[in-house]
Amino acid sequence: MRNSLLSALLLSFGVIAAAQQSASSAAAAGTNAAMQDQQNTSTITVNGPVVADYGKSITGGTIAEDKIAREVRHELLMLPWYSLFDNLGYTVQGSTVTLTGSLTSQHAVTKRDAENAVKHIEGVEKVVNDIQILPPSPMDDRIRERTFEALTHTAGLSKYFWEAAPSIHIIVQNGRVTLDGFVLNEADKNLAGIAANGVPEVFRVTNNLRVVKD
What we know:
By secondary structure, this protein is α/β, with parallel strands linked by helices. The chain is 35% helix and 19% strand.
């Protein structure tokens, strides 16, 4: 039953597509748009992870690097099996793109797909694929399911999972949980950490959620 539920969750969050919005429309568009005005167009390691178009804007990238970064982000978000239990990031230096993050063993093919998608981007001459494949583990699968349930049943946190591109990602390895992504305030970040720490079999929780204010 749990494996069936986990598979359903992975599939339901498998396809991620996001659209950029300007800061002027963020307030009217709700939770996701409020985050989008903070977009990082040069290096998106959302949380380090690519959870959507969110990230803190930075300066210093060349026009060419920024263009490549936007296209890399788009390609990663379009990968068909990228779920809230996975975590992808990237950096762009000149014509070199480095892919980082981790994928569940069920989505191991996404590592190859990510590299293939990025290396065909105009201006990209080299792709360094440092994406990690998490080892299969029934215990970790249980923790993923239970952590997802704990977060979505905590008041105020379910909104982060309503969209096709959830802004919280749950990464589990050897009983250790990492929460990555964005929330709107410190209270939600703390609630997420408390909820994850209450999940049975969890050894440790690392709360990397970033706060993006309206």
